[in-house]
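Quick review question:
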């Protein structure tokens, strides 16, 4: 095994793994009540959920396997290995994703939801995903468009509708689906919450977090406007994010 990797307790660890940041109890409670229940909750639309379900359905076949990059502690499918920067009970591979520990042409499915914006070189990651997918294998990807800076632990990129045609070259990929995963309501919501918090912090840096929490709760009904996206021809202008499904040629 490469010296950058180690195997312990039925999990694969890369040297790039990180420990979860420590937080005081008050901050953790605030995070749970506000971020986890309001600001951080994004309900993707029906089209993106259906697209993901169709991709995961490929794993129901015998001996089909995949990997969920940036999985956190989720568990989308029993045949989907979970890769994340931080260790958690459902995580199988602890790594920054810069080096995928799979042989070429071995996986049927790769999933990456809200991951590419946190990767310093997303083109290299996409190239490695292309390497590990079997011919005909599918990559399901979700990325943000209108959303504030959110380090996790880094934040580098935003993606437009046209960017998928650039990232996924026609030479290697068939681009099958592209559409908003979060509508203009979520886009406005995230920016408005940050606007309120940043404006408050102009008077005192201590105002940023409490005002952000308050704004996250008060402004949350704006996300209901996402329901109008399917009938809106201009939905690509300020969506909260996009999803795409690409197939390796």
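Suggested answer, residue by residue:
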């Amino acid at each position: 095994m490469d010296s950058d990797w180690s195997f312990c307790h039925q999990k694969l660890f890369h040297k790039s793994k990180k420990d979860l940041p420590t937080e005081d109890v008050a901050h953790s409670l605030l995070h749970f009540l506000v971020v986890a229940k309001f600001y951080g909750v994004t309900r993707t639309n029906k089209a993106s959920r259906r697209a993901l379900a169709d991709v995961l359905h490929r794993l129901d076949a015998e001996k089909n396997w995949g990997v969920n990059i940036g999985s956190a502690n989720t568990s989308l499918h029993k045949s989907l290995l979970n890769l994340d920067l931080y260790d958690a009970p459902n995580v199988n591979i602890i790594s920054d994703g810069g080096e995928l520990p799979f042989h070429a042409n071995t996986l049927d499915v790769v999933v990456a939801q809200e991951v590419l914006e946190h990767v310093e070189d997303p083109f290299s990651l996409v190239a490695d995903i292309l390497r590990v997918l079997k011919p005909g294998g599918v990559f399901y990807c979700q990325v943000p468009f209108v959303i504030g800076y959110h380090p996790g632990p880094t934040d580098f990129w935003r993606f437009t509708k046209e960017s998928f045609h650039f990232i996924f070259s026609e030479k290697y990929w068939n681009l099958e689906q592209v559409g908003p995963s979060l509508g203009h309501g979520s886009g406005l919501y995230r920016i408005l919450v940050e606007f309120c918090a940043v404006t408050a912090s102009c008077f005192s840096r201590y105002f940023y977090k409490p005002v952000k929490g308050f704004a996250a709760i008060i402004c949350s009904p704006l996300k209901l406007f996402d329901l109008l996206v399917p009938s809106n021809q201009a939905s690509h202008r300020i969506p909260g994010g996009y999803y795409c499904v690409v197939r390796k040629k």
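Why it works: Residues 184-201 form the longest helix (18 residues). The chain has one domain: 25-248.
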